[in-house]
C-alpha cells in the first residue's frame, strides 16, 4: 500500500488583450445583458461543483459601487446595480474561484501594475483616481484572477477578477463594483458544527466505526472528510483527518490558528512491501489525557510487527509541535 500523492499540473496560461477599450468594455451588448442569468446556465458537472461546500475558502461579499459612472454612459441606475449584486458571495481557495451559485472555475493568478493590466497609462490613471476616491490602497500592483482554461471561464463580468487592498473589483455597466473580504466567518460557521472528541484518544477509539465524523469544511486543502476534532488549545483548533483507502490509511494532524494552517503532519500510515496486502511498517498514534501524542513506528519482524521507534510531542499555544525528550 503506497500513499498516493496528487499533483496539480498547470497546462495552460492565457492573456487577455485589454488596451484603452477596457474603459468601455462594460458598454458592449454582452455586458448590457443580464450576465448573472447567463452565468447560471451550467453543465451538470459544474452544478455538482457549485454544490460542494467542502472547499477551504476566503470569501468576499458585496461592499459598494463606485460613486459615478466611469464615462457617464451607464444604462442602469445605481439601485438596480446594487440589487443585482448585493447577495453575491465570491469565494476563492487554493485552486478555484466560485461566484455564489452561478459559476466556478480553476484560476490562474498574476500580479500586475495598473499600466500593465490596462495596457495604457491614461486608462491606468483613470482607474487609479477611482480607487483613491474609494479609499482603496493598491500599492504598486493588483492581483488578477483569470480562468486557467478559457473555454471554462465564467460569463462577463465574472470572467476576470482583480483584487486590490483585499477588495475584489469588477466592472459592470460602466461602474466599478466592490466586494469586501470577510473575516473567516465561512470557516468559523463550518468549524462550529464540528464535534469535539475528548481525550484520551486510544487505538480502540481510532479503530472504532462510530468515532469518525464527516467534515464539510476543507482543511489544509486535503480531500479527506473523516475527522476527529480534539479540544482547542487556547486559540488553536486541532484536527486529525483520516484518509481511508481500502486497507491503506493516512492520519494527518492539522492545527489552525487565526484561520491559518500552522501544522500539517502525517502521524499515522502504513508502508507495504512488494507482496500484495502485506504491511512492512506501520506508524500509529495515541493521545493521552495530558495532550501528549505518542507515535509508535512498528516494523515487521518475522510474522509480527515490533516497535522500532517511539516519539512523543505536544502542541504549544501557537499550534506548533514540541518534541518531548
Description of the structure:
With 325 residues, the protein is α+β, with helices and mostly antiparallel strands. Helices cover 17% and strands 39% of the residues. It contains 8 helices and 17 strands. A hairpin with a 3-residue loop joins β3 and β4 (103-112). The longest helix has 13 residues, at 121-133. The protein starts with 28 loop residues before the first helix and ends with a strand. The model is unreliable at 1-56 (pLDDT under 50).
Number of strands: 17
Work out the helicity level. 10-25%
Strand content: 35-45%
Please identify the oligomeric state: single chain
Poorly predicted runs of 5 or more residues: 1-56
Largest sheet: 9 strands, antiparallel
Distance N terminus to C terminus?
Answer: 31 Å
Number of helices: 8
Instruction: Look at the helices and sheets and give the structural class.
Output: alpha+beta
Approximate shape: elongated
> Can you list the strand order of the major beta sheet?
9-10-11-12-13-14-15-16-17
Q: State mean pLDDT (0 to 100 scale).
A: 78
Radius of gyration using CA atoms only: 25 Å
Amino acid at each position: 500500500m503506497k500513499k498516493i500523492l496528487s499533483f496539480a499540473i498547470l497546462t495552460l496560461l492565457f492573456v487577455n488583450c485589454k488596451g484603452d477599450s477596457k474603459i468601455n468594455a462594460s458598454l458592449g451588448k454582452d455586458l448590457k445583458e443580464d450576465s448573472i442569468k447567463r452565468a447560471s446556465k451550467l453543465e451538470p458537472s459544474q452544478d455538482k461543483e457549485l454544490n460542494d461546500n467542502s472547499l477551504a475558502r476566503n470569501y468576499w461579499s458585496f461592499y459598494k459601487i463606485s460613486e459615478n459612472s466611469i464615462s457617464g454612459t451607464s444604462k442602469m441606475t445605481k439601485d438596480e446595480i446594487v440589487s443585482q449584486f448585493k447577495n453575491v458571495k465570491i469565494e476563492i481557495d487554493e485552486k478555484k474561484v466560485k461566484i455564489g451559485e452561478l459559476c466556478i472555475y480553476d484560476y490562474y493568478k498574476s500580479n500586475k501594475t495598473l499600466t500593465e493590466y490596462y495596457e495604457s497609462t491614461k486608462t491606468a490613471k483613470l482607474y487609479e483616481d477611482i480607487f483613491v476616491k474609494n479609499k482603496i490602497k493598491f500599492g504598486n500592483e493588483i492581483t488578477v484572477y483569470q480562468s486557467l482554461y478559457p473555454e471554462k471561464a465564467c460569463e462577463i463580468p465574472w470572467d476576470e477578477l482583480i483584487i486590490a487592498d483585499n477588495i475584489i473589483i469588477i466592472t459592470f455597466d460602466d461602474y466599478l463594483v466592490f466586494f469586501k473580504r470577510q473575516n473567516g466567518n465561512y470557516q468559523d460557521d463550518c468549524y462550529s458544527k464540528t464535534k469535539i472528541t475528548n481525550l484520551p484518544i486510544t487505538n480502540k477509539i481510532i479503530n472504532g466505526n462510530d468515532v469518525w465524523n464527516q467534515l464539510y469544511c476543507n482543511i489544509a486543502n486535503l480531500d479527506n472528510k473523516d475527522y476527529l476534532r480534539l479540544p482547542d488549545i487556547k486559540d488553536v483548533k486541532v484536527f486529525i483527518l483520516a484518509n481511508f483507502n481500502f486497507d491503506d490509511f493516512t492520519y494527518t494532524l492539522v492545527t489552525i490558528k487565526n484561520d491559518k494552517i500552522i501544522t500539517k503532519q502525517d502521524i499515522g500510515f502504513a508502508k507495504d512491501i512488494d507482496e500484495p496486502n502485506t504491511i512492512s511498517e506501520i506508524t500509529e498514534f495515541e493521545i493521552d489525557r495530558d495532550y501528549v501524542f505518542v507515535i509508535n513506528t512498528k516494523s515487521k519482524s518475522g510474522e509480527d510487527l515490533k516497535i522500532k521507534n517511539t516519539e512523543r510531542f505536544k502542541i504549544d499555544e501557537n499550534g506548533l509541535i514540541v518534541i518531548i525528550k
